Amino acid sequence: MLKKILRKLPKKVAKSDSSDSTRGDSGNSTSFGNVFQCTNVGSTISSKLNVVKRVSSAVFPSSMNAGAEAVDPCLSFKDVSNTQKQSLFISKLNLCCKVYDMSDLDKNCTEQNFKRQTLVDLVDFVSSGTVKFTEPAIAAVCKMCATNLFRVFPPKFRTSTTGGETEDEEPMFDPAWSHLQIVYDLLLRLINYNSLDLKVAKMHMDHAFILRLLDLFDSEDPRERDCLKTILHSIYGKFTVHRPFIRKSVSNIIYCFVFETERHNGIAEMLEIFGSVISGFALPLKEEHRMFLCKALIPLHKPKTVGIYHQQLTYCVVQFIDKDQRLASSVIKGLLKYWPLTNSQKELMFISELEEVLEMTSMAEFQKIMVPLFQRISCCLNSSHYQVAERAHLMWNNEHILNLITQNRYVILPLVFSALVNNTKNHWNQAVVNLTQNIRKVLSQMDEDLVLACQLKFEEEDSGSSAAAAERRRITWERLEAAAKSVQSVDAADVIVPVRSSTACSVAC
Questions:
Q1: Does residue 20 fall inside a structural domain?
Q2: What is the pTM (predicted TM-score) of this model?
Q3: How do residues 103-116 score in pLDDT, each as one tens digit?
Protein backbone atom coordinates (compact mmCIF):
# COMPACT_ATOMS: atom_id res chain seq x y z
CA MET A 1 0.00 0.00 0.00
CA LEU A 2 2.86 2.33 0.93
CA LYS A 3 4.69 1.52 -2.32
CA LYS A 4 1.60 2.36 -4.34
CA ILE A 5 1.35 5.73 -2.62
CA LEU A 6 5.07 6.48 -3.20
CA ARG A 7 4.71 5.60 -6.89
CA LYS A 8 1.92 8.10 -7.27
CA LEU A 9 3.74 11.02 -5.60
CA PRO A 10 6.21 11.80 -8.47
CA LYS A 11 3.40 11.60 -10.99
CA LYS A 12 1.43 14.31 -9.14
CA VAL A 13 4.49 16.55 -8.84
CA ALA A 14 5.30 16.16 -12.54
CA LYS A 15 1.70 17.01 -13.46
CA SER A 16 1.80 20.12 -11.28
CA ASP A 17 5.10 21.25 -12.83
CA SER A 18 3.72 20.75 -16.28
CA SER A 19 0.64 22.81 -15.58
CA ASP A 20 2.71 25.57 -13.94
CA SER A 21 5.04 25.71 -16.91
CA THR A 22 2.07 25.96 -19.24
CA ARG A 23 0.67 28.90 -17.26
CA GLY A 24 4.07 30.54 -17.23
CA ASP A 25 4.38 30.23 -20.99
CA SER A 26 0.96 31.80 -21.45
CA GLY A 27 2.00 34.73 -19.27
CA ASN A 28 5.23 35.38 -21.19
CA SER A 29 5.63 36.61 -24.74
CA THR A 30 5.64 33.81 -27.32
CA SER A 31 6.51 33.61 -30.98
CA PHE A 32 3.86 34.58 -33.56
CA GLY A 33 4.15 31.08 -35.03
CA ASN A 34 2.76 29.63 -31.81
CA VAL A 35 0.06 32.29 -31.75
CA PHE A 36 -1.16 31.49 -35.25
CA GLN A 37 -1.00 27.78 -34.47
CA CYS A 38 -3.16 28.32 -31.39
CA THR A 39 -5.49 30.45 -33.47
CA ASN A 40 -6.06 27.65 -36.00
CA VAL A 41 -6.75 25.12 -33.27
CA GLY A 42 -9.00 27.53 -31.41
CA SER A 43 -11.04 28.40 -34.47
CA THR A 44 -11.70 24.70 -35.08
CA ILE A 45 -12.81 24.16 -31.49
CA SER A 46 -14.89 27.33 -31.57
CA SER A 47 -16.77 26.24 -34.65
CA LYS A 48 -17.65 22.91 -33.08
CA LEU A 49 -18.21 23.79 -29.44
CA ASN A 50 -19.02 27.51 -29.78
CA VAL A 51 -16.52 28.52 -27.11
CA VAL A 52 -13.98 31.35 -26.94
CA LYS A 53 -10.30 30.52 -27.16
CA ARG A 54 -7.62 32.09 -24.95
CA VAL A 55 -4.75 33.64 -26.87
CA SER A 56 -1.18 34.39 -25.98
CA SER A 57 -0.28 37.62 -24.21
CA ALA A 58 1.82 38.46 -27.25
CA VAL A 59 -1.45 39.51 -28.91
CA PHE A 60 -2.42 41.68 -25.96
CA PRO A 61 -0.37 42.31 -22.79
CA SER A 62 -1.78 40.98 -19.57
CA SER A 63 -1.17 44.34 -17.89
CA MET A 64 -3.75 45.92 -20.21
CA ASN A 65 -6.15 43.04 -19.71
CA ALA A 66 -6.47 43.79 -16.01
CA GLY A 67 -7.31 40.21 -15.22
CA ALA A 68 -9.75 39.63 -18.10
CA GLU A 69 -9.36 36.84 -20.57
CA ALA A 70 -7.95 37.87 -23.94
CA VAL A 71 -10.01 36.74 -26.91
CA ASP A 72 -9.01 35.81 -30.43
CA PRO A 73 -9.21 39.12 -32.37
CA CYS A 74 -10.16 37.24 -35.54
CA LEU A 75 -13.57 36.42 -34.08
CA SER A 76 -16.65 38.53 -34.71
CA PHE A 77 -18.58 40.24 -31.94
CA LYS A 78 -21.60 38.20 -32.96
CA ASP A 79 -19.77 34.95 -32.23
CA VAL A 80 -19.00 35.67 -28.58
CA SER A 81 -21.12 36.06 -25.50
CA ASN A 82 -21.85 39.43 -23.95
CA THR A 83 -19.41 38.76 -21.14
CA GLN A 84 -16.61 38.15 -23.64
CA LYS A 85 -17.25 41.17 -25.88
CA GLN A 86 -15.21 43.50 -23.70
CA SER A 87 -12.19 41.20 -23.95
CA LEU A 88 -12.66 40.81 -27.69
CA PHE A 89 -12.87 44.59 -28.02
CA ILE A 90 -9.53 45.00 -26.25
CA SER A 91 -7.89 42.21 -28.26
CA LYS A 92 -8.96 43.79 -31.54
CA LEU A 93 -7.61 47.15 -30.40
CA ASN A 94 -4.24 45.66 -29.65
CA LEU A 95 -4.16 43.89 -32.99
CA CYS A 96 -4.63 47.29 -34.68
CA CYS A 97 -1.53 48.67 -32.97
CA LYS A 98 0.51 47.24 -35.83
CA VAL A 99 1.43 50.11 -38.20
CA TYR A 100 2.11 49.39 -41.87
CA ASP A 101 3.88 51.38 -44.56
CA MET A 102 0.97 52.54 -46.69
CA SER A 103 3.12 54.14 -49.36
CA ASP A 104 3.52 50.70 -50.93
CA LEU A 105 0.04 49.25 -51.48
CA ASP A 106 1.36 45.87 -52.60
CA LYS A 107 3.38 45.34 -49.44
CA ASN A 108 1.52 43.52 -46.64
CA CYS A 109 -1.71 43.97 -48.59
CA THR A 110 -3.54 41.16 -46.80
CA GLU A 111 -2.54 42.35 -43.36
CA GLN A 112 -3.52 45.95 -44.21
CA ASN A 113 -6.97 44.89 -45.39
CA PHE A 114 -7.47 42.75 -42.31
CA LYS A 115 -6.48 45.64 -40.04
CA ARG A 116 -8.86 48.00 -41.82
CA GLN A 117 -11.72 45.53 -41.47
CA THR A 118 -10.91 45.14 -37.78
CA LEU A 119 -11.03 48.92 -37.34
CA VAL A 120 -14.40 49.02 -39.06
CA ASP A 121 -15.67 46.30 -36.71
CA LEU A 122 -14.50 48.32 -33.71
CA VAL A 123 -16.30 51.45 -34.91
CA ASP A 124 -19.49 49.49 -35.57
CA PHE A 125 -19.32 47.94 -32.12
CA VAL A 126 -18.92 51.31 -30.43
CA SER A 127 -21.70 52.79 -32.58
CA SER A 128 -24.09 50.11 -31.33
CA GLY A 129 -24.01 51.75 -27.90
CA THR A 130 -23.73 48.46 -26.03
CA VAL A 131 -20.05 48.76 -25.11
CA LYS A 132 -19.09 49.82 -21.61
CA PHE A 133 -15.77 51.64 -21.58
CA THR A 134 -13.92 50.24 -18.60
CA GLU A 135 -10.46 51.55 -17.71
CA PRO A 136 -8.64 48.78 -19.66
CA ALA A 137 -10.81 49.55 -22.69
CA ILE A 138 -10.15 53.30 -22.48
CA ALA A 139 -6.43 52.66 -22.07
CA ALA A 140 -6.45 50.31 -25.05
CA VAL A 141 -8.23 52.84 -27.28
CA CYS A 142 -5.80 55.60 -26.32
CA LYS A 143 -2.83 53.31 -26.90
CA MET A 144 -4.09 52.25 -30.32
CA CYS A 145 -4.84 55.84 -31.36
CA ALA A 146 -1.44 57.04 -30.16
CA THR A 147 0.35 54.27 -32.04
CA ASN A 148 -1.42 54.98 -35.33
CA LEU A 149 -1.84 58.76 -35.21
CA PHE A 150 1.16 60.22 -33.42
CA ARG A 151 3.96 60.42 -35.96
CA VAL A 152 6.63 62.77 -37.24
CA PHE A 153 5.78 64.57 -40.46
CA PRO A 154 8.36 64.75 -43.25
CA PRO A 155 10.12 68.10 -43.70
CA LYS A 156 8.38 70.71 -45.81
CA PHE A 157 10.07 71.41 -49.12
CA ARG A 158 7.69 74.09 -50.32
CA THR A 159 9.32 77.48 -50.51
CA SER A 160 7.65 80.41 -48.78
CA THR A 161 7.15 83.41 -51.06
CA THR A 162 5.82 86.90 -50.55
CA GLY A 163 2.58 85.93 -52.22
CA GLY A 164 1.99 82.78 -50.22
CA GLU A 165 -1.51 83.78 -49.21
CA THR A 166 -2.66 83.92 -52.85
CA GLU A 167 -0.94 80.76 -54.07
CA ASP A 168 -3.24 77.92 -55.04
CA GLU A 169 -1.13 75.09 -53.71
CA GLU A 170 -2.54 71.63 -54.17
CA PRO A 171 -3.01 69.85 -50.83
CA MET A 172 -0.96 66.77 -50.05
CA PHE A 173 -2.94 63.68 -49.07
CA ASP A 174 -1.65 61.04 -46.66
CA PRO A 175 -1.57 57.56 -48.25
CA ALA A 176 -2.53 56.02 -44.89
CA TRP A 177 -5.78 57.99 -44.69
CA SER A 178 -7.93 54.88 -45.25
CA HIS A 179 -6.77 53.68 -41.81
CA LEU A 180 -6.31 57.05 -40.12
CA GLN A 181 -9.85 58.14 -40.86
CA ILE A 182 -11.31 55.14 -39.04
CA VAL A 183 -8.95 55.65 -36.08
CA TYR A 184 -10.06 59.29 -35.80
CA ASP A 185 -13.68 58.19 -36.00
CA LEU A 186 -13.17 55.70 -33.19
CA LEU A 187 -11.43 58.30 -31.00
CA LEU A 188 -14.23 60.81 -31.58
CA ARG A 189 -16.88 58.23 -30.69
CA LEU A 190 -15.01 57.43 -27.49
CA ILE A 191 -14.88 61.10 -26.47
CA ASN A 192 -18.56 61.69 -27.24
CA TYR A 193 -19.75 58.45 -25.62
CA ASN A 194 -22.57 59.25 -23.21
CA SER A 195 -21.58 56.88 -20.41
CA LEU A 196 -17.84 57.60 -20.61
CA ASP A 197 -16.20 57.92 -17.19
CA LEU A 198 -14.44 61.27 -17.53
CA LYS A 199 -12.36 60.79 -14.38
CA VAL A 200 -10.84 57.64 -15.85
CA ALA A 201 -10.61 58.99 -19.40
CA LYS A 202 -8.71 62.15 -18.40
CA MET A 203 -5.95 60.00 -16.89
CA HIS A 204 -5.23 58.49 -20.30
CA MET A 205 -6.08 61.59 -22.40
CA ASP A 206 -3.62 63.59 -20.37
CA HIS A 207 -1.53 66.66 -21.21
CA ALA A 208 1.04 64.61 -23.11
CA PHE A 209 -1.73 63.05 -25.23
CA ILE A 210 -3.22 66.48 -26.00
CA LEU A 211 0.16 67.95 -26.94
CA ARG A 212 0.80 65.16 -29.42
CA LEU A 213 -2.71 65.69 -30.78
CA LEU A 214 -2.01 69.41 -31.27
CA ASP A 215 1.21 68.57 -33.12
CA LEU A 216 -0.88 66.76 -35.72
CA PHE A 217 -2.49 70.06 -36.78
CA ASP A 218 0.64 70.68 -38.86
CA SER A 219 -0.45 67.87 -41.19
CA GLU A 220 -0.61 68.85 -44.85
CA ASP A 221 -3.69 66.69 -45.37
CA PRO A 222 -6.78 68.95 -44.99
CA ARG A 223 -8.96 65.92 -44.20
CA GLU A 224 -6.85 65.10 -41.16
CA ARG A 225 -6.90 68.70 -39.93
CA ASP A 226 -10.68 68.74 -40.25
CA CYS A 227 -10.98 65.59 -38.11
CA LEU A 228 -8.58 67.03 -35.55
CA LYS A 229 -10.64 70.20 -35.37
CA THR A 230 -13.74 68.22 -34.42
CA ILE A 231 -11.88 66.04 -31.91
CA LEU A 232 -10.11 68.92 -30.15
CA HIS A 233 -13.38 70.83 -29.90
CA SER A 234 -15.02 67.78 -28.30
CA ILE A 235 -12.15 67.37 -25.84
CA TYR A 236 -12.32 71.06 -24.92
CA GLY A 237 -16.07 70.83 -24.37
CA LYS A 238 -16.07 67.60 -22.36
CA PHE A 239 -12.85 67.76 -20.32
CA THR A 240 -13.14 71.10 -18.52
CA VAL A 241 -10.00 70.35 -16.51
CA HIS A 242 -7.93 70.44 -19.70
CA ARG A 243 -9.25 73.78 -21.00
CA PRO A 244 -6.53 76.08 -19.54
CA PHE A 245 -3.82 73.73 -20.79
CA ILE A 246 -5.31 73.63 -24.30
CA ARG A 247 -5.50 77.44 -24.46
CA LYS A 248 -1.92 77.77 -23.28
CA SER A 249 -0.64 75.14 -25.72
CA VAL A 250 -2.40 76.75 -28.68
CA SER A 251 -0.95 80.12 -27.65
CA ASN A 252 2.53 78.61 -27.68
CA ILE A 253 1.96 77.22 -31.19
CA ILE A 254 0.85 80.67 -32.38
CA TYR A 255 3.89 82.35 -30.75
CA CYS A 256 6.21 79.94 -32.54
CA PHE A 257 4.41 80.49 -35.83
CA VAL A 258 4.39 84.30 -35.67
CA PHE A 259 7.82 85.02 -34.25
CA GLU A 260 9.92 82.06 -35.46
CA THR A 261 8.82 79.84 -38.34
CA GLU A 262 5.86 81.57 -40.06
CA ARG A 263 4.97 78.10 -41.31
CA HIS A 264 2.11 76.02 -39.96
CA ASN A 265 -0.71 74.24 -41.74
CA GLY A 266 -3.35 74.23 -39.02
CA ILE A 267 -3.67 77.85 -37.84
CA ALA A 268 -7.01 78.30 -39.62
CA GLU A 269 -8.48 75.16 -37.99
CA MET A 270 -7.27 76.18 -34.52
CA LEU A 271 -8.78 79.64 -34.92
CA GLU A 272 -12.03 78.08 -36.06
CA ILE A 273 -12.16 76.11 -32.81
CA PHE A 274 -11.38 79.18 -30.74
CA GLY A 275 -14.11 81.16 -32.50
CA SER A 276 -16.69 79.06 -30.70
CA VAL A 277 -14.59 78.91 -27.53
CA ILE A 278 -14.41 82.71 -27.29
CA SER A 279 -18.16 83.02 -27.74
CA GLY A 280 -18.55 80.91 -24.59
CA PHE A 281 -16.27 83.03 -22.38
CA ALA A 282 -17.98 84.28 -19.24
CA LEU A 283 -18.16 87.99 -18.41
CA PRO A 284 -16.24 89.84 -17.19
CA LEU A 285 -13.38 88.47 -19.26
CA LYS A 286 -10.45 87.01 -17.39
CA GLU A 287 -7.05 88.63 -17.76
CA GLU A 288 -5.85 85.39 -19.37
CA HIS A 289 -8.38 85.83 -22.18
CA ARG A 290 -7.40 89.46 -22.75
CA MET A 291 -3.77 88.43 -22.97
CA PHE A 292 -4.68 85.78 -25.54
CA LEU A 293 -6.20 88.51 -27.70
CA CYS A 294 -3.29 90.95 -27.33
CA LYS A 295 -0.37 88.50 -27.36
CA ALA A 296 -1.62 85.81 -29.75
CA LEU A 297 -4.50 86.93 -32.00
CA ILE A 298 -3.39 90.48 -32.85
CA PRO A 299 0.21 89.45 -33.75
CA LEU A 300 -1.29 86.89 -36.16
CA HIS A 301 -1.81 89.84 -38.51
CA LYS A 302 1.97 90.04 -39.01
CA PRO A 303 2.82 86.95 -41.16
CA LYS A 304 2.73 87.18 -44.93
CA THR A 305 0.41 84.18 -45.15
CA VAL A 306 -2.35 85.85 -43.11
CA GLY A 307 -4.72 85.41 -46.04
CA ILE A 308 -4.94 81.67 -45.37
CA TYR A 309 -6.59 82.17 -41.97
CA HIS A 310 -7.74 85.81 -42.05
CA GLN A 311 -11.45 84.97 -42.14
CA GLN A 312 -11.20 82.85 -38.97
CA LEU A 313 -8.93 85.44 -37.31
CA THR A 314 -11.42 88.25 -37.99
CA TYR A 315 -14.22 86.17 -36.52
CA CYS A 316 -12.24 85.57 -33.31
CA VAL A 317 -11.39 89.28 -32.98
CA VAL A 318 -15.02 90.31 -33.53
CA GLN A 319 -16.14 87.78 -30.90
CA PHE A 320 -13.82 89.39 -28.36
CA ILE A 321 -15.17 92.88 -29.10
CA ASP A 322 -18.70 91.54 -28.89
CA LYS A 323 -17.86 90.35 -25.37
CA ASP A 324 -16.21 93.62 -24.34
CA GLN A 325 -16.39 96.73 -26.55
CA ARG A 326 -13.51 98.31 -24.61
CA LEU A 327 -11.17 95.99 -26.51
CA ALA A 328 -11.92 97.71 -29.84
CA SER A 329 -9.26 100.40 -29.40
CA SER A 330 -6.60 97.78 -28.60
CA VAL A 331 -7.54 95.81 -31.72
CA ILE A 332 -7.39 98.89 -33.97
CA LYS A 333 -4.01 99.88 -32.53
CA GLY A 334 -2.78 96.37 -33.33
CA LEU A 335 -4.05 96.63 -36.89
CA LEU A 336 -2.29 99.96 -37.35
CA LYS A 337 0.90 98.49 -35.89
CA TYR A 338 1.00 95.61 -38.38
CA TRP A 339 -0.50 97.55 -41.31
CA PRO A 340 1.10 96.39 -44.59
CA LEU A 341 3.05 98.97 -46.57
CA THR A 342 3.87 97.13 -49.80
CA ASN A 343 1.29 94.29 -49.96
CA SER A 344 -1.93 95.62 -51.49
CA GLN A 345 -3.86 92.33 -51.13
CA LYS A 346 -3.08 92.21 -47.43
CA GLU A 347 -4.08 95.88 -47.13
CA LEU A 348 -7.49 95.08 -48.62
CA MET A 349 -8.01 92.41 -45.94
CA PHE A 350 -7.04 94.84 -43.20
CA ILE A 351 -9.52 97.45 -44.44
CA SER A 352 -12.33 94.86 -44.48
CA GLU A 353 -11.50 93.75 -40.95
CA LEU A 354 -11.23 97.37 -39.82
CA GLU A 355 -14.74 98.05 -41.07
CA GLU A 356 -16.12 95.08 -39.12
CA VAL A 357 -14.36 96.25 -35.97
CA LEU A 358 -15.57 99.85 -36.36
CA GLU A 359 -19.15 98.63 -36.67
CA MET A 360 -18.88 97.35 -33.07
CA THR A 361 -16.83 100.26 -31.69
CA SER A 362 -18.36 102.64 -29.19
CA MET A 363 -17.89 106.40 -29.34
CA ALA A 364 -15.55 106.49 -26.35
CA GLU A 365 -13.22 103.85 -27.81
CA PHE A 366 -13.37 105.45 -31.26
CA GLN A 367 -12.20 108.81 -29.93
CA LYS A 368 -9.11 107.18 -28.43
CA ILE A 369 -7.73 106.09 -31.79
CA MET A 370 -9.46 108.29 -34.41
CA VAL A 371 -6.40 110.49 -35.16
CA PRO A 372 -3.89 107.73 -36.08
CA LEU A 373 -6.73 105.72 -37.65
CA PHE A 374 -7.78 108.41 -40.13
CA GLN A 375 -4.20 109.32 -40.87
CA ARG A 376 -3.89 105.76 -42.16
CA ILE A 377 -7.28 105.90 -43.92
CA SER A 378 -6.15 109.12 -45.62
CA CYS A 379 -3.18 107.27 -47.08
CA CYS A 380 -5.52 104.51 -48.28
CA LEU A 381 -7.86 107.04 -49.91
CA ASN A 382 -4.89 108.44 -51.79
CA SER A 383 -3.41 105.03 -52.69
CA SER A 384 -2.25 104.56 -56.27
CA HIS A 385 -3.60 100.99 -56.12
CA TYR A 386 -7.17 101.53 -57.26
CA GLN A 387 -8.64 98.57 -55.30
CA VAL A 388 -7.22 99.86 -52.02
CA ALA A 389 -8.48 103.36 -52.76
CA GLU A 390 -11.94 102.08 -53.72
CA ARG A 391 -12.22 99.91 -50.60
CA ALA A 392 -11.23 102.84 -48.37
CA HIS A 393 -13.86 105.08 -50.02
CA LEU A 394 -16.58 102.44 -49.58
CA MET A 395 -16.10 102.53 -45.80
CA TRP A 396 -17.92 105.85 -45.83
CA ASN A 397 -21.09 104.10 -47.01
CA ASN A 398 -21.34 102.34 -43.64
CA GLU A 399 -23.94 104.17 -41.55
CA HIS A 400 -22.30 103.47 -38.19
CA ILE A 401 -18.87 104.62 -39.39
CA LEU A 402 -20.39 107.70 -41.02
CA ASN A 403 -22.14 108.51 -37.75
CA LEU A 404 -18.82 108.28 -35.87
CA ILE A 405 -17.22 110.56 -38.47
CA THR A 406 -20.08 113.06 -38.28
CA GLN A 407 -19.87 113.45 -34.52
CA ASN A 408 -16.07 113.89 -34.71
CA ARG A 409 -15.91 115.78 -38.02
CA TYR A 410 -13.88 118.70 -36.63
CA VAL A 411 -10.99 116.31 -36.02
CA ILE A 412 -11.43 113.90 -38.94
CA LEU A 413 -12.16 116.17 -41.90
CA PRO A 414 -8.88 118.12 -41.73
CA LEU A 415 -7.03 114.77 -41.72
CA VAL A 416 -8.60 113.44 -44.93
CA PHE A 417 -9.47 116.59 -46.88
CA SER A 418 -6.09 116.98 -48.58
CA ALA A 419 -6.23 113.34 -49.78
CA LEU A 420 -9.67 113.95 -51.30
CA VAL A 421 -8.50 117.08 -53.11
CA ASN A 422 -5.40 115.34 -54.45
CA ASN A 423 -7.54 112.45 -55.71
CA THR A 424 -9.84 114.86 -57.55
CA LYS A 425 -6.89 116.50 -59.29
CA ASN A 426 -4.36 113.76 -59.80
CA HIS A 427 -5.69 110.20 -59.39
CA TRP A 428 -5.37 108.10 -62.54
CA ASN A 429 -8.45 105.92 -61.98
CA GLN A 430 -11.77 107.50 -62.91
CA ALA A 431 -13.80 105.26 -60.58
CA VAL A 432 -11.74 106.48 -57.61
CA VAL A 433 -12.24 110.08 -58.75
CA ASN A 434 -16.00 109.56 -58.86
CA LEU A 435 -16.04 108.03 -55.38
CA THR A 436 -13.98 110.96 -54.08
CA GLN A 437 -16.45 113.46 -55.50
CA ASN A 438 -19.33 111.59 -53.83
CA ILE A 439 -17.59 111.75 -50.47
CA ARG A 440 -16.95 115.48 -50.89
CA LYS A 441 -20.68 115.96 -51.53
CA VAL A 442 -21.53 114.00 -48.39
CA LEU A 443 -19.10 116.14 -46.38
CA SER A 444 -20.58 119.33 -47.79
CA GLN A 445 -24.05 118.20 -46.75
CA MET A 446 -22.69 117.24 -43.35
CA ASP A 447 -21.05 120.62 -42.57
CA GLU A 448 -20.58 123.07 -45.45
CA ASP A 449 -18.84 125.70 -43.33
CA LEU A 450 -16.28 123.20 -42.11
CA VAL A 451 -15.62 122.04 -45.67
CA LEU A 452 -15.07 125.67 -46.79
CA ALA A 453 -12.71 126.23 -43.87
CA CYS A 454 -10.76 123.10 -44.79
CA GLN A 455 -10.68 124.27 -48.43
CA LEU A 456 -9.25 127.69 -47.46
CA LYS A 457 -6.70 126.10 -45.17
CA PHE A 458 -5.68 123.66 -47.89
CA GLU A 459 -5.25 126.49 -50.41
CA GLU A 460 -3.18 128.50 -47.95
CA GLU A 461 -1.01 125.53 -47.17
CA ASP A 462 -0.77 124.73 -50.86
CA SER A 463 0.27 128.29 -51.78
CA GLY A 464 2.56 128.42 -48.79
CA SER A 465 4.07 125.12 -49.71
CA SER A 466 4.46 126.32 -53.31
CA ALA A 467 6.21 129.49 -52.14
CA ALA A 468 8.32 127.50 -49.75
CA ALA A 469 9.16 125.07 -52.52
CA ALA A 470 10.14 127.95 -54.81
CA GLU A 471 12.29 129.46 -52.08
CA ARG A 472 13.96 126.11 -51.50
CA ARG A 473 14.65 125.78 -55.21
CA ARG A 474 16.14 129.28 -55.33
CA ILE A 475 18.41 128.61 -52.37
CA THR A 476 19.45 125.29 -53.87
CA TRP A 477 20.37 126.90 -57.20
CA GLU A 478 22.36 129.64 -55.46
CA ARG A 479 24.31 127.02 -53.56
CA LEU A 480 24.95 125.08 -56.74
CA GLU A 481 26.19 128.22 -58.56
CA ALA A 482 28.45 129.13 -55.65
CA ALA A 483 29.86 125.64 -55.59
CA ALA A 484 30.48 125.74 -59.34
CA LYS A 485 32.32 129.08 -59.08
CA SER A 486 34.51 127.79 -56.27
CA VAL A 487 35.40 124.74 -58.34
CA GLN A 488 36.32 126.95 -61.33
CA SER A 489 38.57 129.19 -59.20
CA VAL A 490 40.37 126.18 -57.80
CA ASP A 491 40.94 124.79 -61.29
CA ALA A 492 42.36 128.10 -62.50
CA ALA A 493 44.80 128.34 -59.57
CA ASP A 494 46.05 124.82 -60.20
CA VAL A 495 46.91 125.34 -63.90
CA ILE A 496 50.56 124.29 -64.59
CA VAL A 497 52.49 126.37 -67.19
CA PRO A 498 54.87 124.12 -69.18
CA VAL A 499 58.61 125.11 -69.14
CA ARG A 500 60.33 125.27 -72.54
CA SER A 501 63.73 123.67 -73.03
CA SER A 502 66.80 125.69 -74.24
CA THR A 503 66.84 123.83 -77.53
CA ALA A 504 63.26 124.70 -78.21
CA CYS A 505 63.93 128.38 -77.39
CA SER A 506 66.90 128.55 -79.78
CA VAL A 507 64.90 127.00 -82.55
CA ALA A 508 62.15 129.48 -81.92
CA CYS A 509 64.61 132.39 -82.16
A1: no
A2: 0.77
A3: 776 677 888 899 99
